[in-house]
User: What shape does this take?
Amino acid sequence: MSSKLVPSDPAKVMIIRDVVPNVITTLSAPFSRFGLIKVGGRGTIVRLRNGSLAVFSPIALTDEVKQKVASLGEVKYIAALDIEHHIYLGPWHSAYPAAKVLGPEGLPEKRQKQNNEPVTFSHLFSKSKPITSIDADFDAEFAYQYVDAHPNKEIAFLHKPSRTLIQADLLFNYPANEQYSKLGVSATSGVLTKVFGSLTNTRGVGQKRFLWYALSAGDRMGFARSVARINEWDFDRMIPCHGDVVETGAKGVWGRMFEWHLELAKKGG
Assistant: This one.
């Protein structure tokens, strides 16, 4: 992995934070798309009521992360939230081989083509064969929605007890302040990063337009229906992979950014 994309020593710049003590921990670090755009990366660890752990969009497995995991419980689930968020699946799968690995259709083939480390997937989210259950413990605490109309084949998860939406590339929350806070550079520096930021912040209408005119253009109705199902969930916090965590009021942010899609889904039935 090129150091232009991720830091050569992630332990020095990673932020390990308990968002909900003893329940949700985030792992945040710099990540530069194409080596130029400051996107930021984030993995999320959720501790279930039975003490097992679910890891979403895992990032670098440093010694500090291993120690944190050991203090929380046993890793039972590892989820790649889309076909892009998988580069660290190999190390996590090797370290926790008993964990069930979840991901979207097409990811095993992509990893094989790229000659990534072998990973056995327990559950693949597919449009033709929808997943209705992971197991009783997981289903008791999580809802999930496969957004097959998204170009990256997104899977969104709701941790029901903490009312937390966990997602990768469905919605960004630029800038990536937390993810770049240890690197010693501004999260908004650079012309391309500023352009990117105009399309990925949740304050204006840039991202709203990008979601409508670009990301969902291939199957807007299918995209809208998935977004509407997520909108039915009860969540207040949102943990995106890119940009800062929305600590509260996330349902309102979701509604603003996907307003046109929600209207379309309502009209389409």
Q: What stands out?
A: DSSP finds ten helices and 13 strands in the chain.
